[in-house]
Structures are given as structure tokens and as C-alpha cells.
Design a protein that fits this description.
The complex is a heterodimer of chains A (114) and B (113). Chain A has 114 residues and is mostly beta strands. Chain A is built from no helices and eleven strands. Classes of the chains: A mainly beta (114), B mainly beta (113). Chains A and B meet through strand 4, strand 5 and strand 9 of A and strand 4, strand 5, strand 9 and strand 10 of B.
């Protein structure tokens, strides 16, 4: 049972336009959400996160929106740049005593076309 | 990366052989993790360790073993019992406190033929 779902395997966007990557989750216990960016043959790099007490977090060109009632979050990249072309993973975690584990989605490959 | 070293970058082994992947960190993080990435599968947790000399199985631990003899090191052994060992293996670390992101190494691509 996949608890974090990224239903779009790929997305193509024109340079300068907005990229919107979506993520849905099923576990209502999740209360911390992250986005990672990954280039081929490299490890994922942390991009931005959001706690469930917020509905929006912004960092430069990247904004994450959280809709708890819909169990949905999205990552907006504005404006999109060719260097943003990568696989983006959505991840979530539940609060727990001690360990800290992330559940990842399967990723969305973003291609930004010059 | 930034303080997490995985070696080697590429590794080739014959079927039936055990192989050990190295992960070293100098971030002074308490927790270390091993993930596996397969095409279209996202990242799946193999093992994690919150403290020296202690570790727990993740979602797909069968066919793998780990050790945590010192804080900086968390090697992963892929045994011959692992049915599909060819994959991209990622080591991660974290301060083991809530609401802190994990930091990943650059991975090891293991190919078993």
C-alpha cells in the first residue's frame, strides 16, 4: 500500500513558466513533508519542507503548499529554469519516539525546456 | 553529499557473492540510513541505525545486513540471499531529531550478473 503517491511520472514545462508537482498521501498521521531533488547518479538533495501546522512555505523560487483536508501537497517552481530538470521526490514522516523515517513517493521527472 | 562518502561509485559482482558498500560521514549525525532506489520505485528503506551498536530493519531488509561499530560508519552488506541486488544504493544521515531533513550521499550503483 503506497502511502505517498506522485501520480505523474513526468512533467514538461517551458523555461520561465511555472512547474507544479503534486503529491498525495493516505496516512493521516503524517505531519512533516519534504521535497527532494535528484539528478541522475547522484543522491537526493533536500529542497524544502513543511510542517502540518502550516499550509504554505516559501524559499526563493520554490513554494510548497499543503492541503491537509485533501491530503495533498504541491511544489511550485517559479520561474522554471533548465537546471531544475531532475526527478523530484515527495516524502513524509510521522512523529515517533526516537527514530525518524521518511516514506517516499516514486518521483516525478521534471523536464524544463529552454 | 557534504560530508557523506559512499564508495565505490560503481560496483560489479558475480551472482552468489556477498558485497559490502561503504558509507562514512563526518556530519556528527546520530542516525544513519540505507535506501535502495529502483527505476519507478522511489526510495525504499533497508536498514537504519540511531546509535552505535544498534540498528533496525526497514521495509526491505531481507538479504541485507549492516553494522554500526562507530558513529561515522554504517556499511551495508548485500548477501547472496538478496534476490534482486542490482540497484542504486543510497546512504543517508540525520540528527535523529524530528523535523530535520535527511542528508544523502551520492550513492553506489551495484550491478550483479
Amino acid at each position: 500500500d503506497q502511502q505517498v503517491k506522485q501520480n505523474s511520472p513526468s512533467l514538461s514545462v517551458q523555461e520561465g513558466r511555472i512547474s507544479i508537482l503534486n503529491c498525495d498521501y493516505t496516512n493521516s498521521m503524517f505531519d512533516y513533508f519534504l521535497w527532494y531533488k535528484k539528478y541522475p547518479a547522484e543522491g537526493p538533495t533536500f529542497l524544502i519542507s513543511i510542517s502540518s501546522i502550516k499550509d504554505k512555505n516559501e524559499d526563493g523560487r520554490f513554494t510548497v503548499f499543503l492541503n491537509k483536508s485533501a491530503k495533498h501537497l504541491s511544489l511550485h517552481i517559479v520561474p522554471s529554469q533548465p537546471g531544475d530538470s531532475a526527478v523530484y521526490f515527495c516524502a513524509a514522516s510521522v512523529p515517533g519516539a526516537g527514530s525518524y523515517q521518511l516514506t517516499f513517493g516514486k518521483g516525478t521527472k521534471l523536464s524544463v525546456i529552454p | 553529499d557534504g560530508g557523506i562518502t559512499q564508495s565505490p561509485k560503481y560496483l560489479f559482482r558475480k551472482e552468489g557473492q556477498n558485497v559490502t558498500l561503504s558509507c562514512e560521514q563526518n556530519l556528527n549525525h546520530d542516525a544513519m540510513y540505507w535506501y535502495r532506489q529502483d527505476p519507478g520505485q522511489g526510495l525504499r528503506l533497508i536498514y537504519y541505525s540511531q546509535i552505535v551498536n544498534d540498528f533496525q530493519k526497514g521495509d526491505i531488509a531481507e538479504g541485507y545486513s549492516v553494522s554500526r561499530e562507530k558513529k561515522e560508519s554504517f556499511p551495508l552488506t548485500v548477501t547472496s540471499a538478496q534476490k534482486n541486488p542490482t540497484a542504486f544504493y543510497l546512504c543517508a544521515t540525520g540528527p535523529d531529531q524530528y523535523n530535520s531533513p535527511l542528508h544523502f550521499g551520492n550513492g553506489t550503483r551495484l550491478t550483479v550478473t
